[in-house]
Design goal:
The chain is globular and about 60 Å long. 38% of the residues lie in helices and 13% in strands. Helix 2 packs antiparallel against helix 9 and helix 10 runs parallel beside helix 12. The longest helix is centred in the last third of the chain and has 24 residues. It is of the alpha/beta class. Bound molecules: 4'-deoxy-4'-aminopyridoxal-5'-phosphate. The site of 4'-deoxy-4'-aminopyridoxal-5'-phosphate has 12 residues, from helix 5.
């Protein structure tokens, strides 16, 4: 604490991301990164960046990249917004579109950055409890609100809402912005981007960090009505004119041009997810149905999830444990390569055997 801090900074409780340890031999299943590299075309595009491109400022409006996203989504470039990771896009969304008098609704178990942005911008957040089976019932959001945000698939549960549910949510809330955070949509869900032209109150946010294996590059994107995007541009241009750097603009264009690589990587993760789920179930875990690149799994009641988390860590395998109401008995495990998933299952099987001996 410093006497120079503003009142806002004194009051903040910042978000804590999953750790990024430097040890190269660790099996890192804690931040839902892709276990596979990005398309080789991305690396080629980065190698082709010359001194001139770095000497100059990048295109502040990322015109070529917005056009590429728009064309892939069947939208206009005015319906696309880009930022430095979807965390930055979301931060601008909270400030520009969700800061109203009525409370912002989001699920009680969802992305733990949402309450942090509420605090930062003085937004009253209201948590809507998930059902006992951890599902989201869209009817629960039919109450006065100044906006709604939910991850789909939800994080950290991995559970998916279908487009029919998203449509019902939009119809029941025509006077507020509904933000669908689709960080994990490419691993088995149907994107609500298809609904953008039907609903002027829908904003869909996606990231290049997971399914496109570009977490290190920091690019996120939002799709919505041109008026919503215009609002986000106003925030961006009052904050940082160049959030997407010259290297990132070229690299993401190259990634979008290689759909084959992208689909193959997602399919490998989806196949490994089934094997990991089956393996965990064999060890007595309850595994929630996941449409994401992670699973949310609770060991049999006699075992302590936090103790397992720590014991795995000692063996060089890092997963995520949230010490929070309702979910402290679960581990969130990113889907790795088959070899990594095997190593995890083997370690768990030994730990559970020791524990019950
Ligand atoms: N939304 C959700 C639900 C997430 O889990 C994450 C990853 N922590 C993000 C958004 C942000 O991802 P990024 O900033 O890497 O685009």
């Amino acid at each position: 604490m410093s006497r120079y801090w503003s009142d806002v900074v004194r009051r903040l409780t910042p978000y804590v991301p999953g750790e990024q340890p430097r040890h190269p031999r660790l099996i890192k299943l804690n931040t839902n990164e892709s276990p596979y590299p990005p398309s080789p075309r991305v690396l080629d595009a980065i190698h082709e960046v010359d001194g001139d491109a770095l000497r100059r400022y990048p295109d502040p409006e990322s015109v070529a990249l917005r056009a590429a996203f728009a064309s892939a989504a069947g939208l206009q470039p005015e319906q696309v917004f880009l930022g430095n990771g979807s965390d930055e896009v979301l931060a601008h969304v909270f400030m520009g579109l969700l800061q109203h008098d009525a409370p912002l609704l989001f699920p009680d178990i969802s992305y733990s950055f949402y309450p942090v942005w509420c605090d930062l911008y003085g937004i009253a957040g209201e948590c809507v409890p998930l059902g006992d089976d951890f599902s989201i019932a869209v009817e629960d959001y039919a109450r006065p609100n100044g906006g709604i945000i939910l991850p789909n698939p939800n994080a950290p549960t991995g559970m998916l809402l279908g487009l029919g549910d998203i449509r019902r949510l939009l119809k029941a809330n025509p006077h507020s912005v509904v933000v669908v955070d689709e960080a994990y949509i490419d691993f088995g869900g149907e994107s609500a981007v298809a609904l953008v032209n039907e609903h002027d109150n829908l904003l869909v946010v996606q990231t290049l960090s997971k399914s496109r294996a570009l977490a290190g590059l920091r690019v996120g994107v939002a799709f919505g009505h041109a008026d919503l995007i215009d609002g986000l541009q106003r925030v961006k241009n009052s904050f940082n004119s160049y959030p997407v750097d010259a290297v990132a603009q070229r690299a993401v264009l190259a990634s979008l041009a290689d759909e084959e690589w992208f689909r193959a990587s997602c399919d490998k993760v989806i196949a490994s997810r089934s094997r990991l789920t089956a393996g965990l179930e064999q060890l007595g875990f309850q595994v929630l149905p996941s449409s994401a690149n992670f699973v949310f799994a609770a060991p049999a009641p006699q075992y302590d999830a936090q103790a397992l988390f720590l014991a795995l860590r000692e063996r060089g395998i890092i997963v995520r444990h949230f010490n929070k109401p309702r979910i402290s008995s679960f581990l969130r495990i990113s889907v790795g390569t088959d070899a990594q998933c095997e190593a995890l299952l083997e370690a768990l099987s030994e730990l559970l055997a020791v524990d019950s001996a």
